[in-house]
């Protein structure tokens, strides 16, 4: 049986650049979480969402489904890598004042066990390790509701002014 999935998203340019420069990273993420700013299209495509954001801490959730599967009927590693990258970058962003943002320079992911639809809700928590003037390092973990570890990673983000 053929399956379909329809993705709908808002124009990613509307208010994004102004919001990024006018708000601290934490306030920007809170505005997305609270529905005041629409999430990026990739969040709609993959289906992750912000669960918690505080200074130096970010949590994103994902309900894994068969639309995330690779040819082996498990969630593709790229989906889990994207979830980790998103949460880790957000954790760095929560520490930045207005007019500064960040972007991933590199990411390393370790997959611990396979994920499938039966894995249920996944929670990705991330915390910075070090925040410098130009670079930040951060770590993240993907766990299920029973705190079983599925993947973990580390990342380096560059910090720069919003142009």
What CATH first level would be assigned?
A: Alpha Beta
Q: Which fold name is given in CATH as the topology?
A: Thiol Ester Dehydrase, Chain A
Q: Which structural class should the secondary elements be placed in?
A: alpha+beta
The overall average pLDDT, rounded, is 94
Query: Per CATH, which architecture?
Result: Roll
Kindly provide the radius of gyration, computed on alpha-carbon positions and rounded to a whole number of angstroms. 16 Å
SSE pattern, N- to C-terminal: HHHEEHEEEE
Strand order of the largest sheet: 1-2-4-5-6-3
Q: How far apart lie the N and C ends?
A: 48 Å
Given as residue ranges, the uncertain stretches (5+ residues, pLDDT < 50) are none
Identify the overall geometry.
Answer: globular
Largest sheet: 6 strands, antiparallel
Helical segment count: 4
Number of domains: 1
Report on this model:
This protein is α+β, with helices and mostly antiparallel strands and 163 residues long. It has a single domain, classed as Hotdog Thioesterase (Thiol Ester Dehydrase, Chain A, Roll), CATH 3.10.129.10. The chain has four helices and six strands; from the N terminus they run H-H-H-E-E-H-E-E-E-E. A six-stranded antiparallel β-sheet has the order 1-2-4-5-6-3. The protein starts with 15 loop residues before the first helix and ends with a strand. The model has no long low-confidence stretch (mean pLDDT 94).
